[in-house]
Structures are given as structure tokens and as C-alpha cells.
Task: structure prediction
Amino acid sequence: MNTKRKPIFIISGTSASGKSSVWLPLREQLGIYAFTTSCTTRPKRPTETNGDDYKFVSLHKFEEMIKNGEFLEHQEVHGDLYGTEKTEFHSLVHSGKIGIMELDVHGALAMKEKYDNIVLVFVRPSDPYEAAKRLEERATEDKIAIETRIKRFDVELELSKRYDHIIINDDLTKAQKKLVEIIESY
Result:
């Protein structure tokens, strides 16, 4: 599909890299940006809102959506399923706004292969072990889930070499500014 529309920026990063925090201020500028909300089977964290952060669905519902062809892409990440609904993506493309999506590395790379207006931005700390420390401090996952996420760091960092831009998030304000600079350059 050749969309030839405004760019769509896909944000990815290691667990606890702060990727959501980097792009979150853009949500306040809805006149300029449009966003998708991914579906997931992951349990909702106390600070999250269903339908805003993610659409939290049961495994049965997610599998039903796969069977019905409702996803543009879907991936298993850390033992949970995540997916982008076709309707969400098409609304984003036809919004006339700059699109922002947050996807895992495999989903992002799959989207880049399908669409010519995708710009990939990877968010990471300068030291991946800093992200491991953030995961432990966040205290939203058990020890096994944290270990699973840490084991994935090397894979994600290797795949980030295929991204258009990498943002080091050691200072949130600077990382947010860098993302805006990247977007404005397009």
C-alpha cells in the first residue's frame, strides 16, 4: 500500500526506556498529532487507563480478533500479545495529522516494510542496565517478568540498528525535545 501521506512515527524501545514518557506530551497537541491505541492481553497496570494506554482484552478476545483479520500486525512480547487494529491504523492514516504509534521492534519493522511513510524512532537509555534498574523500581512486574524483559534487551538493541533514529533517554526533557526535532525535520 502506498500511502503518500504525512509521516507516521513509530516509537519503540527497550522495557523501561521511557518511550511512552518521551512521546506523551504530544498527546496534548491533538490538532497536530493523531495516535493509535494498541490491543494487549497484558494485565492493566494501576496507572493505566483502558482505551487510552492500551485496549486490554482477554486472550480469547485477542485470538478471536486474529481469526477475524482485525489486526494489521500483532506480536507476542514478553509472553503477552499486542496488536494494531486495522481500523485504528486507517483512521490514523486518513486523519490528515502526523501519526504516532508505539510498537515493539518486530511490529515496527513489519510496518516499515509495508508502508513508505513510516519513520522508526528507538528510545533507549545509554546503559541498558539502567533500564533493568528502572524495571525493578517500577515494581509492576514480578521477578520472572523482569528477567524476561531484560533478556530481550540485546535483541531489541540489535534490531534498533535498522531504525531511522535513536534517542538516548537519560534526560527526559532532552529526549522529548529530540523527538520533536526529529518530527519537525520531516
